[in-house]
């Protein structure tokens, strides 16, 4: 299995990796979309046939890349990394050409409440900042998802404003490269 990005996280003493999703992952992601902790925020607890069509369109969408996240090679999360330009979110602020956004879910219940959300998010944002022209990563978690908003804040995201998106009321949040690198410089250095 080839990973697109991998980092050892000393806070959890485990390897975190991401690999690009493929059409072979549709059943697993569909299963996760039907989990009680996921569907209130993703609204994709739909029939397998409808979800398969949705997933295929998402895989073909050139303005985003879908990933599966792993801890010690165990697949347990789903990620969407997208370019803000060309996304509905660009209507809510003046996006730079290389701004990226992120969506995520932890699918496997065994990984919930175990302190993995922040290390996973930190690893994904670090991965997104590997693209040198990107100076900002944005997020728009559901405004009701207080736990995830807290994780974004811990990672270095700053709340900007509530926004009304087609599928949810969200909180627009920014994570600027310089702030992220200052906050996590020791972790990046492996100290």
From TrEMBL:
<comment type="pathway">
    <text>Siderophore biosynthesis.</text>
</comment>
<keyword id="KW-0046">Antibiotic resistance</keyword>
<dbReference type="GO" id="GO:0046677">
    <property type="term" value="P:response to antibiotic"/>
</dbReference>
<dbReference type="GO" id="GO:0016410">
    <property type="term" value="F:N-acyltransferase activity"/>
</dbReference>
<dbReference type="Pfam" id="PF13523">
    <property type="entry name" value="Acetyltransf_8"/>
</dbReference>
<dbReference type="InterPro" id="IPR016181">
    <property type="entry name" value="Acyl_CoA_acyltransferase"/>
</dbReference>
<feature type="domain" description="N-acetyltransferase">
    <location>
        <begin position="16"/>
        <end position="178"/>
    </location>
</feature>
<dbReference type="InterPro" id="IPR019432">
    <property type="entry name" value="Acyltransferase_MbtK/IucB-like"/>
</dbReference>
<dbReference type="InterPro" id="IPR000182">
    <property type="entry name" value="GNAT_dom"/>
</dbReference>
<protein>
    <recommendedName>
        <fullName>Lysine N-acyltransferase MbtK</fullName>
    </recommendedName>
</protein>
<comment type="function">
    <text>Acyltransferase required for the direct transfer of medium- to long-chain fatty acyl moieties from a carrier protein (MbtL) on to the epsilon-amino group of lysine residue in the mycobactin core.</text>
</comment>
<dbReference type="GO" id="GO:0019290">
    <property type="term" value="P:siderophore biosynthetic process"/>
</dbReference>
